[in-house]
Amino acid sequence: MTTAGAELTLRHPVERFTLDNGLRVVLAPDRSVPVVAVSVFYDVGMRNEPEGRTGFAHLFEHMMFQGSANVPKMEHARLVQAAGGTFNGSTHQDYTNYFEALPAEALERALFLEADRMAAPAITEENLRNQIDVVKEEIRVNVLNRPYGAFPWLQLPQIAFDSFANTHDGYGSFVDLESSTVDDATDFFSRYYAPGNAVLCIGGDLDVAETERLIQRWFGPVAAREVPPLPPTGEPLPTTVRTAVVEDALAPAPALAIGWRVPDPVGEFDRYLGTVLLAELLSEGDASRLERRLVHADRIAIAQSSYVGLFGDPFDVRDATLLTTQVHHPAAVPADRVQAAVHEEVRRIAEDGVPVDELRRVQARTEAQLLRQADSVLGRTLGFAAAEIVHGRAELAGELAARLAAVTPDQVRAAAGELDPDTAAVLELRATGGRR
Amino acid sequence: MSLDLSLIPPLGEPRPQPVPTAVESTLPSGLRLIVVPRPGVPLIELRLRVPFAATTAADAGLHTARGSVLSGAVLLGTAAHDQTAIAQLLQGHGAELSVSTDPDRLLFATTLLPGGLRPVLDVLAELLTGATYPDGEVEGERDRVAERIGIALSQPGVIARGALAARRYGDHPYAITLPDPGLVSAVDGGALRELHRSRVLPAGSTLVLVGDLDPSAAADVVAGALGEWTGIGHAVEAPPAPDLRAVGIELVDRPGAVQSNIRLGGPAPGRTDPALPAVRLANMIYGGYFSSRLVENIRERRGYTYSPRSSVDHQAAGSSFLVEADVATEVTGPALLETWYELGRMALLPVTEAELDGARRYVLGSMALSTSTHAGLASTLSALVGAGLPPGWLAEHQQALAEVTVEQVQEAAHRYLASSGLTAVVVGDADRIAGPLGALAPVSVRAGAPE
């Protein structure tokens, strides 16, 4: 373990308790700056959506900002922002989160706001229609009106996986969104937004005993409800290569994404860490294997990146997930040539292994990035919360630097051995329109 | 439903924000150094800002093209190390140097582990004094830059930003937001070596270090590592920017677009102008945050758009008030109408005390949040000090924000937010939106993406 790894492990002790209604609470005090971050993670994400309701988890995230029992529309935002705080929410594959970062003196206000919408969000016809329109504009700006919109996160899972949970469009089809009803939203809330299906995580400038009292005061009265079982998302490993082509009329140049199944991020954590470092070794910076090969030596790529987890965070996702290598390349370079070079570099690692000094450098950089994330009270708090909901152990977030520093060259080599070209999912994006 | 305030927990007493101590010094070469010791995570943030404006409007196209290649090519090698070796030397200390240009400056930025200060500065010094710009590698880099610019120019937001800048600034360097790919393709190693020699200079440049540091020891390390970086001349700032205030709407045609990108822009007070605090608060109330009039109107009431926003943006030679909204094609006219309507209300009617208080607390709170991390503080200080302001400006500005009145906000809005003073650009499907927009103002249609 390096010094910085040790510091990160030790500096942020975590306190936890559970309310009678089942709400799990994690407190991570750090009184160095007068700021608190308050986050509520619900254990429901895009992969829980029923057929015919694609995009519903994300649409519901919008509904949680439309007011609640004691807070009119727009007032949630005003009460946070007028206290000097910021807020947002986001929908992931396996969870949906809501969070605020505020001056420490606004802690109780944030608890009141989160408890009020955990008890009773304002699910009205008018609010639902309005937010369906807003979500459609979000999809237009991020997907439909933009070259490479949502490439490859919306299309690659469709060829890499088989189950509805893993293959459907998490942004949702316009047909499904438009046909959503108030009853759907009420049912979704009732089923998935139970206090027992949530984690409340607070970090920063807080007194543990006082904060526990405030949490009991505001969240204690929220009625307990039944908690749904976790949906199965794991799938059998692929046995064949799968390929697909998408056409993008807005894109001026082609792109390629290769996805490989990786070990279970929770059940096979140590093997998974080898894969996480492999992705870094492949693509982070000018010293990385694929940057050197594709961009500088062969000059067959404009840009490349590799990452684990669809949204690039390897520690916020359950099985099944992918290591994705994404390459933007000039039109004159055939996709096959890019693909062959990627597979060759992976095979080289699988066969020759990784020099210790190369891995140490990659680990140093990973450590610096984890520290950088932990430097922000909000970033640290979200990391603890995600670790609690996905891994059942908030402490893991504080241990990541040390755990990654302990990964051996053999683990990385083994991870490369699992990136089999014969079971990869390959998505080619063809530029069919060009600039306009 | 109205809000029952008796239910809302009151805010406690604010705890004072820790005030950063910035230790300043200047090297014999003219390089200014700002060191801010910060407890917390064991990291250092480094920002080296070199003023890098085009010297004249005529020269801006070429300068921008060369600068866009130089920012990648400076890392391609030195006499002692090739590109991979440089990246490896940095990576071992957790660092990865990002080099970028904008119309005002060239910026070297990285995070590093504390033990790496001297070795990372040594690599930086090697790049500053001995980057070789090898001809073959430069060719590869410039081809990639040209490809990337081609991709960027297919993004509607990029097209809109370029069109607004061109319309506001005419032949000033700020009119060019992305270099012409043709000029980029003509850049070679010789041009970059000359540009580096004449423009990457310590005099006028600023190095900011924030983090796990002892200021005087850090200053010694910097002097030791960067002492050889000298050069004749002084960094260049852009000439004052005009604001042409073109009348009517310029419509950039993007046939088949499912959304329209509305962009409005006009002048705003600079960082030292006493009107700035009032304009910043007027901007917040108008469209600067979620609790603003624009968001409430065109997002939360009408569902026209996902993230409408306004901002005050500072460049060295001129500051801007900007409004942006990406809206569904079929509501483009109504969305611009509402956007202008809210500007008119700002310019002609007073805001409420509650709106002003909310905006003020938000601005002060978000400044505190953004400077609470090493990285946020380093970037903020680099911009401020680079603009010729002392690090203490931050505290003075906070005090000035605290004293702004409703009347001052109205005066500022009348002067800077009135739609008559803003230049308008819309990118979208001209066949479908030219008619509705024409009902609001004269429309001139321009084809395709700016090159």
Largest interface: A-B, 89 and 86 residues
- CATH superfamily caption of the largest domain in chain B: Metalloenzyme, LuxS/M16 peptidase-like
Q: Number of domains in the coordinates of chain B?
A: 2
Kindly report the CATH topology of the largest domain in chain B. Cytochrome Bc1 Complex, Chain A, domain 1
Q: Roughly what fraction of the amino acids of chain A lie in strands?
A: 15-25%
Using only C-alpha atoms, the radius of gyration of chain A works out to 22 Å
Reported for the largest beta sheet of chain A, the result is: 6 strands, mixed
**Fourth-tier CATH superfamily name of the largest domain in chain A:** Metalloenzyme, LuxS/M16 peptidase-like
Class from helix and strand fractions of chain B: alpha+beta
**Approximately how much helix is present in the residues of chain A?**
40-55%
Estimated share of beta-strand residues of chain B: 15-25%
Largest sheet of chain B: 6 strands, mixed
Q: Which structural class best describes the helix and strand composition of chain A?
A: alpha+beta
Rounded to the nearest angstrom, the radius of gyration of chain B is 24 Å
**CATH top level of the largest domain in chain B?**
Alpha Beta
Keywords:
heterodimer; A: 436 residues; alpha+beta; Cytochrome Bc1 Complex, Chain A, domain 1; six-stranded mixed sheet; five-stranded mixed sheet; 11 strands; 44% helix; globular; disordered N terminus; B: 451 residues; 2 domains; 12 strands; Peptidase_M16_C (chain B); Metalloenz_LuxS/M16 (chain B); Putative Zn-dependent peptidase (chain B)
In words, what does this structure look like?
The complex is a heterodimer of chains A (436) and B (451). Chain A is an alpha+beta fold and 436 residues long. Chain A folds into two domains: 3-220, Cytochrome Bc1 Complex, Chain A, domain 1 (2-Layer Sandwich); 242-431, Metalloenzyme, LuxS/M16 peptidase-like (Cytochrome Bc1 Complex, Chain A, domain 1), CATH 3.30.830. Helices cover 44% and strands 17% of the residues of chain A. Chain A has helices at 3-11, 56-63, 75-81, 107-119, 125-144, 156-160, 164-167, 174-178, 182-192, 208-219, 269-283, 289-297, 335-352, 356-375, 377-391, 395-405, 409-417, and strands at residues 15-18, 24-29, 35-42, 86-91, 96-103, 198-204, 242-248, 255-261, 303-308, 322-328, 425-431. Chain A has a six-stranded mixed sheet with strand order 1-2-6-3-5-4, sandwiched between helices. Chain A has a five-stranded mixed sheet with strand order 7-11-8-10-9. In chain A, helix 12 packs antiparallel against helix 13 (335-352). In chain B, 44% of the residues lie in helices and 18% in strands. Chain B is built from 16 helices and twelve strands. Chain B has a six-stranded mixed sheet, sandwiched between helices. Chain B has a six-stranded mixed sheet with strand order 9-10-8-11-7-12, with helices on both faces. In chain B, strand 9 (309-315) and strand 10 (318-328) form a beta hairpin. In chain B, helix 1 (60-73) crosses helix 4 (135-152), helix 3 (117-130) packs parallel to helix 8 and helix 9 packs across helix 15. The longest helix of chain B has 18 residues, at 135-152. At the A-B interface, helix 1, helix 3, strand 5, helix 4 and helix 5 of A face helix 2, helix 4, helix 10, strand 10 and helix 12 of B. Chain A: Residues 181-364 form the Peptidase M16 C-terminal domain. Chain A: Belongs to the peptidase M16 family. Chain A: Pfam families: Peptidase_M16 (PF00675), Peptidase_M16_C (PF05193).
